[in-house]
Each structure stands twice: as C-alpha cells, then as structure tokens.
C-alpha cells in the first residue's frame, strides 16, 4: 500500500484490506494527502464509479477517529440530492464505520422519527441529509443549529454538478452560509462530481468569497472504452402498430438488451410507459420472463425500490425504462448499456447517464442513441426538413466525445429562492430585522446580485396586505404573516423548486390538454401541441390557462416546442453539423440518409449564405445560430413589433401580421440600438415556486437576469442581417 494508506486510521485500513483492494486509486491517494495534510475546501471530480465518495470520506472519517472532537455535534455532514441516494450511501458508510463504532444517520422524510430523535439527543458521527430536510431542520430547530453542527469538520456535497446555479443550489449555498454564521466559523466544504464544465465557476459555487482557495482534484484517464451508435427512424401517421418507429425501436432494444442490466432514458413519463408496455408485450409474445420495467417519479416508491433492487441483483436481468430518475448517482450496480430515445437537452446530462455504463474493469461503456424523425410530405415544415432532433443528437454526442459540457449560468437574481429564504430565516429565529435579513442573505449569502433597493422592493411585496406573507411589529421586527405562517408550516415549503407549471390550453372553450411551461410565453407567440400549431391569444398566470387559436401558418413541425434550455455551444455545433459534409462513423445508414437530407434542405433554404429565408408571403425563417435564451429574447421583441413568432433550436419562424411590416427594417432597427419592448401585458414570467408573490417589476427584473438576454440583441441582429436576404 501507499503512503496515503498509512495516513488513514487503523479501522479504515482494516476495512480496505477486507475489501480486497490491492491499492488505493490515484484520485483516492490524492484526496487522502489533500484532506489529511490541509484544511482547504476541495472539489473531487471523477467519472461515475470513480471512487469519489471513498476519496472524500475515508480520510475525513480517519480524522474523526484519530482526533475526536471535544464538543458534541455531528462530525461530518453529507448532503445528497435524492432520498434514495442518502439511503444507499448510508448503507455503504455503515459498513465502513461499523468497526470504528461511528454512528451513521440517514435523514429524510422516509426515516423513522425514533432514528431522528436519537440523533438529535446525542448528535455525533455522520449525518446524511437532503437539502430539503436540512431546510426543515433550520426552520424547526433553528436555535439548536450551533449545538448540532458546532463540531462539524466538513460538509460533503455530492453530485455537485446538479446544483450549480439552480434554485436548489442557491438554497443550499444559503443554508451553508447560515450554518457558518450560526456556529461562528467556516466549515470545510468538499464537492463531489462526475460532470463539471467550468471549474472556475464550480470553485465559485463552493466558496463564493474566495474561489481561488478551493483545491481541485481531477481523475486522469480511467474512462472506459466507449461504444456508441446513433440509429435513425422515420415515423408518420400512417404507420401500422407493428411497423411504427416506436415498435421498431422497442424490437431493437428487446433484441440487444434482453438478458442484461440496462437503462433506457425515454424522455417523458408517457413515453416511458409506452416503451415499457411495448417491451412487456414482446416478452409475453416470446413467452419469456419479464425483465423490462418503467421507472419515473409518478410511480410508487415501492415500485421504484423494486426496480432498483432488481438492477442491483446480478442474477436477474433488468432493464429500466426511465425519465431522469435514474440519472443521478444512486447505486444500481453495473449496467451493460445506456440507451437514449430522442434528442437530449444537455451534454452534461448525457455524460452523466453514460457514466452508468462501463463501470466494470475491462468492460466498455455502451450508448445507443435513437433519433425519430417524421416522414416528409410536400407540406412538411422546414423545421422537420432540417431534422433538428437528429442534428441536436449528433452535436451533443460530438461535444460529449470532446469532453465538453455546459457550465453553470452567470449569476442570476433568483428572487423566488430569495423569498423562500426570507421566510425561512424569519421562521428560524421567530422574527428578523430587514438589516439582518439583508446581511445574512445578500451580503454574506448567495444573493449578492440583489442590491438594497431591489431587496426592499421584495420585502414590500411580501408585506403587501393582499400577499400576507410577512408583517412588521411595532419595534420594526419582521414576522411571518397569516399566509406566511400557513405556508411555512406545510412540509411542501422545504423544497424551493417545483416541477414545471402545467398550463391548461383552451381553444374556443374546449380544453386541449396541459403543457409544462419553462420558457417565456406571450400573446402572439406560436406553440406546437398535439400535432398542430396554435397562436397564443392570452396567458392567465393566476388560473394557469393559455388561450389559443389555430394557426393558419401551414403544417407545424413534429420536432420543436419542447421545454428546455439549449446552450449556445450546442447550437453552434448543430450549425457546424448542418454545414459539414462528413457523416460520423457511429451513425447507421438511416441516420446518415436523414443527415444528408437535412443538409440538402439547409442548402435549398439558403441558410449556407443567409440567416433569413422567405418561406411564403410574410412568412420567414430566421437562423439565429444562438441558444434558447438569446433566441427567446429575439422572439419576444419581434412579437412586440408585429410578428407571430415560434422558436426552435437556433431558429425563429416569424409571420408578419400585415403587409407594411418589413422584417429586414425591423432587424436593422434592433441592431442599431432602437427602442424595444421585451415584456408586454400577459407575457408569462412566473416559472418558479415563489414567483406568484412578486410584483410585475420584480418578475421582469428576475427574467432579465436569467431567462432573457437583452444585451445580446444588437449583436444577434447584426449577424443576422449582415448576410444577403434570400427571397
């Protein structure tokens, strides 16, 4: 064994020998030296199953054993994003800590009250907790935080990449700041992640006031050989059930995955159920045991546990058809293959999913990507002709192979999360002054972009009698109001995030269905729903209703209209693929044919030499060549200037509402800095859980900081109009 091994406590050395390890992995040896010999914050980055958890916890536990704390309290705090991951890690740590007699306490909603009571009475050892349960602890036991965490040596944040700059990530940073203020000293922070884009931003997340002090350990090599294939399929309304693209993909999965453990990421919950049903039928037709099971958040915890247990059981071949529920690091054993149906939304997510495969020594990681495109007709929309689903898949695979993934976004205001934390701090202390709230949350905490005037506007919005979240006592102390008390007392308050709001779509008094809304919507914009194009007439945020009328703009695209935020780099690569002439070797013949078809139509539409193509009288396609945020910003402005608009990956479809509106002149006006109006009445700006309590001005400020990019407009328009106009 190495010098690093000798630095570990005897019980830890004994456990390592019992595992049959010949030596520590390189990243683990590095971490032992860094943790035992220093006190700096640390990020440990390695592939899935790369030994990150042991790299952090073995030396930290050794420190606890070799130098016991003199004060009471939990020695180590582990924060994980999923209850299932907490339970899984607790089981692994109990095995490590059994010899050392160090308590390991999992803490989430499914843990019994007796376990929690025992831990609170005599806190020590390792506490494993979700951000939501930590929030609940602050609210319910705020005055006990110094006693519980005064002796804590380090906070381990698992799956760090999943929280960077998200609502949940800002909440966690706020809780860490509040904990350090409560105990009166900094606590070492150690982040674990398999996927990080920009390490500078990751360091800034872990320790915002001093990112340069954060050490970084990245595992070199160790990645399994990668085998991948992108298969293309063509679907149309006339397909018979046995010949449909869905049936073909299910048959291919059945043929190649049967008899092994696999994950199939199918997108929506509806798609998961459809493919699981198809594969179940194929098992029954062949009179074979069932081994294909759905896994998504709407299914019962018992069913999901059943599927996860089967995946861990090497004697029972199991394939889980899932949404993103199995993307994170819960231990489900080794899987032979990861399949992705449809275009993914991020390279980081694709990379994380692929990390589930190829975990055994000598075994390759296997990715099967399936792209489904519609059969073209003379009436087909240009978006379908460009095969953007396939093109996005190619772009993301190429970026994956190059090692790129999305960095965190630039700092946003996060006003919804600020509302949540204001209420939480007031509940923790039974009241708080405006000055203390600003110091804890904005000056010391993660809301540094929120200046004093904006913060006071937020407090005034929450104190409005119609809102009723907070009220002020005679001595100036801010207290929870009637509505605020009711809100904070409910268990649902602890989670700062929510699933995308489902808006009801209504046309002519008839409900068409529901649609999750994660991007800005406004009257005059067009959306795709149930195979048809609709024009938004009215957005009602209070009742979550969007009034629409059928569009007369021709055949809508099949691909497009999905909620998601595609990064600028992905869009740039998509255009590079469309303008290239080679076909990646990982594509099958159908995918190659679809790629050739997309490139042919791209050239025919004139996009090789122009960013604007006239589709018909008053109807145009604009190649923005930028990501979702910048494309949406342009669409909002054009909508306000008399166009019906529809956004896609790197494209905007526009229809002039009258003959006097000239698109080229409008774009020139924007490019030259002309006056614009982004938000008009009924533009939907409510996306996050506590947005409904904010004023319209605050909602616009929040959107400008994160969901639209007004500063990019002039440059985007200049680049669009610099090319000749294709009539």
Mean pLDDT: 86
According to CATH, what is the class of the largest domain?
Alpha Beta
CATH-wise, what's the superfamily of the largest domain?
Answer: P-loop containing nucleotide triphosphate hydrolases
Helix content: 25-40%
Please give the number of β-strands.
24
Determine the N-to-C terminus distance.
Answer: 72 Å
Cα gyration radius (Å) = 27 Å
CATH T-level topology of the largest domain? Rossmann fold
Q: Tell me the domain tally.
A: 4
Question: What proportion of the residues form beta strands (DSSP E)?
Answer: 15-25%
Coarse shape:
globular
Which residue ranges are poorly predicted, with pLDDT under 50 across at least 5 consecutive positions?
Answer: none
Q: In terms of structural class, how would the helical and strand content be classed?
A: alpha/beta
Going by CATH, the architecture of the largest domain would be 3-Layer(aba) Sandwich
The largest sheet is: 7 strands, parallel
Question: What is the number of helical segments per DSSP (H or I, 4+ residues)?
Answer: 26
Placed side by side, the strands forming the largest sheet appear as 3-4-2-5-6-1-7
């Amino acid at each position: 064994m190495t010098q690093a091994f000798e630095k570990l406590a005897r019980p830890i050395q004994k456990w390592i020998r019992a595992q049959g390890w010949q030596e520590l992995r390189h990243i683990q040896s590095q971490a032992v030296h860094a943790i035992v010999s220093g006190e700096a914050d640390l990020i440990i980055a390695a592939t899935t199953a790369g030994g990150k958890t042991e790299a952090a916890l073995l030396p930290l536990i050794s420190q606890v054993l070799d130098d016991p704390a003199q004060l009471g309290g939990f020695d180590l705090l582990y924060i994980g994003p999923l209850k299932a991951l907490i339970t899984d890690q607790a089981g692994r740590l109990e095995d490590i800590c059994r010899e050392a007699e160090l308590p390991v306490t999992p803490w989430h909603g499914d843990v019994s009250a007796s376990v929690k009571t025992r831990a609170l009475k005599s806190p020590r050892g390792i506490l494993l907790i979700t951000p939501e349960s930590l929030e609940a602890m602050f609210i319910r036991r705020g005055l006990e935080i110094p006693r519980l965490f005064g002796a804590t040596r380090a906070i381990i944040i698992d799956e760090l990449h999943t929280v960077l700059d998200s609502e949940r990530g800002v909440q966690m940073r706020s809780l860490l700041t509040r904990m350090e203020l409560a105990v009166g000293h900094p606590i070492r922070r150690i982040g674990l992640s398999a996927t990080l884009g920009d390490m500078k931003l990751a360091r800034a997340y872990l320790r915002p006031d001093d990112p340069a002090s954060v050490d970084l350990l990245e595992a070199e090599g160790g990645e399994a050989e990668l085998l991948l294939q992108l298969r293309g399929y063509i679907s149309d309304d006339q397909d018979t059930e046995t010949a449909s693209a869905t049936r073909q993909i299910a048959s291919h999965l059945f043929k190649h995955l049967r008899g092994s453990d696999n994950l199939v990421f199918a997108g929506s919950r509806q798609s998961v159920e459809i493919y699981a049903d198809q594969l179940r039928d194929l098992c029954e037709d062949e009179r074979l045991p069932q081994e294909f099971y759905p896994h998504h958040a709407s299914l019962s915890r018992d069913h999901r546990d059943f599927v996860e247990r089967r995946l861990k059981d090497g004697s029972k071949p199991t394939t889980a058809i899932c949404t993103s529920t199995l993307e994170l690091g819960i231990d489900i054993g080794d899987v032979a293959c990861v399949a992705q149906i449809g275009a993914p939304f991020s390279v980081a997510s694709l990379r994380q999913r692929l990390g589930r495969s190829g975990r055994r020594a000598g075994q390759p990681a296997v990715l099967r990507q399936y792209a489904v495109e519609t059969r073209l007709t003379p009436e087909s929309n240009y978006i379908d002709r460009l095969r953007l689903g396939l093109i996005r898949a190619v772009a993301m695979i190429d970026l994956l192979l190059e090692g790129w993934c999305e960095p965190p976004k630039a700092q946003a205001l996060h006003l919804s999360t600020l509302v949540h934390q204001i209420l939480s701090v007031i509940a923790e202390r039974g009241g708080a002054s405006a000055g203390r709230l600003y110091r804890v949350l904005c000056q010391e905490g993660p809301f540094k972009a929120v200046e004093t005037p904006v913060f006071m506007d937020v407090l005034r919005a929450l104190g409005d009698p119609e809102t009723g979240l907070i009220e002020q006592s005679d001595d100036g102390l801010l207290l929870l109001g009637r509505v605020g008390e009711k809100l904070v007392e409910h268990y649902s308050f602890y989670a700062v995030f929510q699933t995308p709001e489902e808006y009801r779509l209504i046309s002519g008094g008839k409900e068409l269905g529901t649609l999750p809304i994660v991007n800005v919507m406004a009257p005059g914009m067009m959306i795709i729903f149930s195979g048809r194009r609709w024009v938004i007439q009215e957005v009602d945020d209070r009742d979550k209703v969007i009034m629409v009328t059928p569009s007369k703009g021709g055949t809508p695209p099949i691909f497009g209209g999905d909620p998601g935020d595609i990064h600028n780099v992905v869009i740039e690569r998509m255009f590079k693929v469309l303008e290239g002439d080679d076909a990646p070797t990982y594509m099958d013949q159908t995918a190659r044919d679809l790629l050739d078809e997309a490139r042919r139509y791209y050239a025919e539409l004139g996009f090789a030499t122009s960013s604007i193509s006239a589709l018909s009288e008053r109807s145009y396609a604009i190649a923005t060549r930028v990501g979702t945020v910048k494309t949406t910003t342009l669409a909002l402005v054009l909508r306000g200037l008399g166009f019906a608009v529809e956004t896609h990956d790197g494209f905007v479809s526009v229809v002039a509402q009258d003959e006097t509106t000239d698109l080229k002149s409008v774009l020139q006006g924007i490019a030259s800095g002309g006056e614009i109006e982004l938000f008009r009445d009924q533009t939907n700006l409510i996306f996050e859980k506590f947005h409904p309590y904010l004023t319209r001005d605050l909602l616009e400020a929040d959107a400008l900081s994160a969901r639209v990019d007004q500063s990019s407009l002039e440059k985007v328009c200049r680049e669009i109009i610099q090319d000749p106009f294709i009539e």
